[in-house]
Amino acid sequence: MAAFMSAAAPYPVERLAEEDTLSLAERAYRRLRDSIVQGALPPGSRISERSLAAALGISAQPVREALRRLEQDGMVVTLPRRGTVVAEFGPERQAEMGRIRAALEGAAAALAAERADAATLAALEAQLQAMQEATEAGRPDLVSAANERFHALIHGATGNVFLIRSLAALRAFDHVGRVRALNSTPKELPRALREHAGILAALQARDPETAEARMRAHVLRSLEVGGLLPHRPDRRRRTP
Amino acid sequence: MAAFMSAAAPYPVERLAEEDTLSLAERAYRRLRDSIVQGALPPGSRISERSLAAALGISAQPVREALRRLEQDGMVVTLPRRGTVVAEFGPERQAEMGRIRAALEGAAAALAAERADAATLAALEAQLQAMQEATEAGRPDLVSAANERFHALIHGATGNVFLIRSLAALRAFDHVGRVRALNSTPKELPRALREHAGILAALQARDPETAEARMRAHVLRSLEVGGLLPHRPDRRRRTP
DNA sequence: TCATGAAGGCTGCCATAGCAGATGGCACAT
DNA sequence: ATGTGCCATCTGCTATGGCAGCCTTCATGA
Question: How far is Cα of residue A43 from the mean position of the Cα atoms in its chain?
Fold first, then answer.
């Protein structure tokens, strides 16, 4: 049970909120989510509200809330009066979640193109610049951080709670696959940079359709690089 | 507080599970959600865990869980130690949720095209037939019911919990607008029928791209008919 | 040997009680 | 009349305990 005592978590965006002021349920949720995506809690692991609460040193109530959220995210499945188990997500599950994320990121980009204010656009430009410098410096870790912030800014620009929460869960889901994609080939970093620039251009031009298409293609291609989706050179076949 | 005592709920799909065996939290969630989307709890209404629990005749714990889920759905917003309030969702919010739903429904259709089994395809054909007959009989209510089941079948065919839950929340969100769209003009029913037929054809052809495109267009157009999105005759402008 | 069933230990679920933080009003001083 | 500090009262949040199902187990009987 020492897994829950791990210190760091790889999602700097959410760290902005003070760790101490967060509710116990929220902390338990993030901790469990990180433990699952990092493999500390492999699929099939049985999770008991009581024992987990004891391991975390808190009551069973916040733990229960955290498990409920994880269930909504599809990370655990609980049979009533039976137990809660970490869900199985093999490659096909990962691919599913990735395609769903591509769709939602596209919708977020479209909405952001309509209502992003000047400050947000400036912040996006700053993150793009940071990504550029990190790319030239050959620092994939900094690129990854700027990448996360870039997307988080777009999510926030929509002002839609449902979208923000869903995308936060989905991005946490395949965070590991995303950094792996960035480190795959040396050509990957500048390509991601170019795509981000294209997305930002569409946002500045207030063009929802283009922003959505580019963002969607960006996510899908990063999934292919990460090995979660098969490469599809031909996407033009149609049904009569 | 008699609003929570209302009997019927307009989502026949979820009624398949026995009402008695559902947890109190689940029942409270659906009840509150229906009360909100039907306007019984207008935006800005303050909701107290305790008083609401007393009105429902249950403890505060299940009510709290229901409120957390509604918060994830973006229907309520709660300030810590301050209170919970029904969120404001004017036309622009409705439009947002509609576009998000279009994106997710598209993803669901794409996944369903890959892994829907023969039984599901047959069931979809049956619902299409039912929709056809209801259309010819001039029964918009039956068309609406078959419509909901058609989409629910596709959602279930994906086998993705996250997708299923998200779409259930989104569809509950603008259920009223959807029936209004179906009853808008007499040409609407056969058009929806044709679009469904086209989607099913793409599913049977195992063509994810076409299925996604058609489903997405179908949802977007129904949103336009419902007045939630402006009509966009030209969608081909691009950013250089 | 094998079916059976009762008991104990699990599980998630719910009710109750009490906590700290936030709010509004009121008395008081300026 | 206005600013100020205190207190009753509200809120969401958490801890504790007990409930009803589910599952395993082992003694009992045929």
Answer: 19
pLDDT of residue B7: 31
- Summarised one tens digit per residue, pLDDT across range B185-203 is 878 888 999 999 999 999 9
Tell me which of B28, B56, B86 is where a domain ends: B86
In a structure prediction context, what are the per-residue pLDDT tens digits for chain A, which is 240 residues long? 333 333 333 333 344 445 567 899 999 999 999 999 999 999 999 999 999 999 999 999 999 999 999 999 999 999 999 999 999 988 889 999 999 999 999 999 999 999 999 999 999 999 999 999 998 888 888 989 999 999 999 999 999 999 999 999 999 988 888 888 888 887 888 899 999 999 999 999 999 999 999 999 999 999 998 877 777 644 444 444
B167 neighbors B215 (Cβ within 8 angstroms): no
For A171: left if phi > 0, alpha if psi spans -120 to 50, otherwise beta; the answer is alpha
Could you tell me the strand order of the sheet in which B83-86 lies? B46-47, B83-86, B76-79
Co-location of A173 and A187 in the same domain = yes
- The enclosing H or E element of A130 equals helix A118-136
Report, as ranges of residue numbers, the positions in chain B whose pLDDT lies below 50. Answer: 1-17, 233-240
| Chain B residues closer than 8 Å to A93 by CB | 160
Structural domain total, chain B: 2
Query: Is the CB of residue A169 less than 8 Å from the CB of residue A73?
Result: yes
Is the same domain home to A42 and A97? no
Tokens of B200: 């099913």
CA distances from A235 to A99, B28, B214 (A): 15, 45, 15
Chain C positions with a protein C-beta closer than 7 Å = 10-17, 20-23
Q: Are residues A113 and A151 in the same domain?
A: yes
CB A44 within 8 A of CB B101: no
Footprint of strand D, using CB within 7 A?
A 23-25, 58-62, 65, 80-82; B 47-51, 60-61, 64, 78, 80-84
Residue B1 lies in a domain: no
Radius of gyration of chain B (CA): 19
Sign of the C-alpha dihedral, residues A101, A107, A113, A118?
A: negative
DSSP structural state of residue B207: -
Q: Which of B51, B86, B121 is the last residue of a domain?
A: B86
Return the SS3 of A71: helix
